[in-house]
Amino acid sequence: MAAPHSIPTEDWWRDAVIYQVYPRSFADGDGDGTGDLAGVRARLPYLAELGVDAVWFTPWYVSPLVDGGYDVADYRTIDPAFGTLGDAEKLIAEARELGIRTIVDIVPNHVSDQHAWFRAALAAAPGSPERELFHFRPGRGRNGELPPNDWPSQFSGATWTRVPDGEWYLHLFTPEQPDLNWAHPLVRQEHEDVLRFWFERGVSGVRIDSAALLAKDPALPDFVEGVDPHPYIDLDELHDVYRSWRAVADEYEGVFVGEVWLPDAERFARYLRPDELHTAFNFSFLACPWDAGRLRRSIDGTLAEHAPVGAPATWVLCNHDVTRTVTRYGRQDTGFDFATKAFGTPTDLAVGTRRARAAALLSLALPGSAYIYQGEELGLPEADIPLDRIQDPMHFRSEGADPGRDGCRVPMPWSADAPYSGFGSSQEPWLPQPVGWASYAADLQAADPGSMLTLYRRALRLRRETPGLGDGPLTWLAAPDGVLAFARAEGVVCLTNLSETAVELPAHTAVLLASGPLTADGELPVDTAVWLRT
What we know:
alpha/beta
């Protein structure tokens, strides 16, 4: 078993490395083909040896799983497919013993249509208190046959669904995810109670899904492109919600990370004021193409956004919603945009893997905290899911045009020689593993000094043990075109070569770690990164 590492108690989140677990696909402990908490508990030593500080779990609550668990029916009960509340409490405690904190996911914008509140609302009459917890409205048109407004969906398709009595309800995502009315005090009180429920069970933090969408303009006006304020994104009254949440978190020394997709840097920074959220995801860096100029602008912009409020930046290359890094970086278009996802996009996995290794060192050398999505440390590619096995609603609501997000959610390969690559036992996983998946297995990579897993383990150990990495200042250094070079404190330098030729290294006393071999002349090859001691 891996030895535990110590848990810092003060501002640990400012430079933490946080590992994202998608429970259905991490490890299957009971052999039914679906990942579960027993599987995670069995793999905690792996996470400790990897060297992460915390684990963020995507929703593990009772859910019909219409949207991968982001349609929550009961926040106080673990979905039986994953285990029990007792299993979750054991997992939180056992992880803590290994020096790993736990972060849970809260989805405040909406609930499942199977949630008790929504079932009661459907059974109640128009204008009832039960319906006031959601956004029920009469329709437009002569007989109310048209939806109340024309708001666009966060997925494809409609945002309103009509019920038998003629009223319509709002759902920015799927019809099975009705939006809550955050102007109602019971909605606010319930979520504060849910926060306390999980903080009291030992979690250290909460990730907030779709954090900028909760508040809606009560007039429900039609959407007009380019006209501010937006009727449901980033409304000012949201900040009062998060100030109340921060007061709850402070009672338990808990932290928040928000999913905040906003192009306006000043508006983004408002969520990170000292009395609101601690951190927020950096989607600019995640979506940025493999281009030195654009990456530098993303890094500079991110640091500038956070500086006025003193919040640490977060760096992430992939998550459960976006194309796997090795696949994306091997494509002609190396950026990410939901609107451009398509079937059959070619990729060069050798190039993508080389770039993903370099990007790992680049991101882990930047100041702030870092997130690693499960399987990134194995270099997993995006999988092509057979059409008859796709489950993601993004695919179906786009009428089949969008391949969906299942390709980055394929169950993890643990043991090369075991059935289904050691994910479970004899039951086929809920999503199929592609041919060759076993070649990425963790047991093979653990024994290979040149593997992606070994690179991540070494990088996280160095990041933890090397003064100058983690939170703190960054200074850009002069470098050839196409090369990102910056210094951290204590003489640590990171170079990433995105140019078309190998480049000389600056004067240094030691090579701490490189994402790939240097040339015979000691130069840094194309698509390679290095950490130096100067």
